[in-house]
Amino acid sequence: MATSESAEDSLYPIAVLIDELRNEDVQLRLNSIKKLSTIALALGVERTRSELIPFLTDTIYDEDEVLLALAEQLGTFTQLVGGPEFVACLLPPLESLATVEETVVRDKAVESLRKLSEEHSKEDMENLFVAMVKRLAAGDWFTSRTSACGLFSVSYPKSSAAVRQDLRNHFRNLCSDDTPMVRRAAAGKLGELVKVTEIEHVKGDFIPMFINLVSDEQDSVRLLAVEACVAIATLLSDEDTEALIMPTLRNCAEDKSWRVRYMVADKFTDLQEAVGPELTSRDLVPAFQSLLKDCEAEVRAAASHKVKVFCENLKPEDSREQLIMVNILPCVKDLVIDANQHVKSALASVIMGLSPILGKDKTIEHMLPLFLTQLKDECPEVRLNIISNLDCVNTVIGIQQLSQSLLPAIVELAEDSKWRVRLAIIEYMPLLAGQLGVDFFDEKLNGLCMTWLIDHVFAIREAATNNLKKLVEKFGKDWANTQVIPKILAMSRDSNYLHRMTCLFCINVLAGVCGPEITTRSLMPVIVSLAKDNVANVRFNVAKTISIVLPLIEPSIVKAEIKPCLVEMETDTDIDVKFYAKEALASADGIINK
Fold first, then answer.
1. Alpha helices, H only, 176-296
2. Which of 32, 241, 571, 582 has the CA that lies 20 to 30 A from 219?
């Protein structure tokens, strides 16, 4: 009796979950769907197959979020229905989900079906899975036909020759379907189906499909077919690619729709790899030129992103330089002064990579003027992209040449009359320091970084303070002790109280990275000396700085040197000084009494 009661008690939560599957509240149904695996485990494999799966199949008329969760769950149900032997019982609910109106639900159902296809035996694949694919492909609604497109590539490898022929015929019908959405789905999946198809059928069946899709009246179909071009060209010989693919590809690069041209530009280096060096030199270089000169900025930006990799992959090496100088570089020169900032930014992110390809002399003669132009561009992203990649040029032309050409431009920007320009250069400085090395930095840029600390704009002084912290993190505290701290401490004696405050702000950020020894030996005496400053703003900032550095100081020193200073500050005439001194004193007492 007790045993049966305990069994009922353990099954009660499961009964609640099953009831929630029928509940009117969407959230409750969603929660229950997310716990389907718990229900299935409690029911056991037989009842899951005979009761739960048919129930789920019959109730596929629900809110989209519930259906999405269900489609995801069913993809992981193989073991819960008894393993691969019984996986076919999961096909009916997923087949129904693959026909619903909401795209994300259909996509998730197809994803789960693709997972389950791996579990099917060859016999079940032909008798059950392929039969389902054919039903979907011949469905009345476009929704089922679009879902079918994603299942051919997993069905084809496990099928017999006769079934494969049937699948190719069905896919051909989908490629010429009346509904654009179906043709779009077929175009998107053509590439992955080609990869698992025999080469003779690629030539005989799929290339005609591909040619029809890339000449489709809908640009959304044509642009997806471009991806398939990469997969097909990879499989074909140079002669077949030349005869069957290149005419179509040339047309795509000059398509009337900018979206198709954008897709060609975006996939250009993949296409270059697929068609091989000979066809690239003869056909793709002119096509790439036209994309770099395209009337649409989005296309030019996509092509600009590919300049470096495209040039690197040009073969043979002995004629590569000539191809770049004659065909690519004139286009690059125009793009450097393009009206669209996204185009310039895309180019700036890769243009430095041309230096190793062209070598020292041509970089100095042809590329450095372009780098200078971009370094002075009004768009911060363009400037950042150039500075971020200076190391590419440094390795080719050497630090000396770099300092003669680009450094003056950087220094000029660092002293620009517009404070926002100066601010931008400060933010790039740690990056630049890492690329140029400590010796070069000390010689050429250290003075500049210290000058920013006494700039008349607070935002610059604040950024320069944070910049110092990053530089110390990069170069180490020994460097800070010799190159930075003496100059900062000298500011504590400056007649301008703003500079004395900047000294404190620097100590705030440097104490942590310099460590207890330097803080105690070099920084603490300056802080204490500024406690007697005649400007109240400096004095209350002293109290704030003490609160920050206290954890780095030995309790005995806190008691002997810092606490007396704070006690004196507590009697200050300025209310703010007293307030912050009191706060710091409480922290000091906490450290002393540990």
1. 180-194, 199-201, 207-214, 219-235, 238-240, 246-253, 258-266, 268-275, 277-279, 285-292
2. 241
pLDDT digits (tens, 9 = 90+) for 327-346: 999 999 999 999 999 999 99
Nearest of 533, 517, 522, 516 to residue 569 by alpha carbon = 533
Dist CA 359 CA 328 (whole Å): 16
Q: How many CB atoms lie within 10 A of CB 162?
A: 9
- The Cα–Cα gap between 591 and 394 comes to 50
- Inform me whether the pLDDT recorded for 355 exceeds 80: yes
Cα–Cα distance, 334 to 259 (Å, whole number): 22
Note if the bond before 551 is cis, omega within 30 degrees: no
pTM greater than the 0.90 cutoff: no
Q: Which of 588, 591, 501, 589 is nearest to 546 (CA)?
A: 588
Contacts of residue 483, defined as CB under 8 A and 6 or more positions apart, other chains included, come to 442, 446, 475
Backbone angles phi, psi at 295, to 5 degrees: -75, -20
Split at pLDDT 50, 70, 90, the class of 297 is very high
**Cα Dmax for the chain:** 98
Q: What angle do CA 341, 343, 349 make, to 5 degrees?
A: 100
Q: Hey, what's the torsion of the CAs at 487, 488, 492, 494, to 10 degrees?
A: 50
pLDDT digits (tens, 9 = 90+) for 189-210: 998 888 888 888 888 888 888 8
Region 73-88 average pLDDT: 83
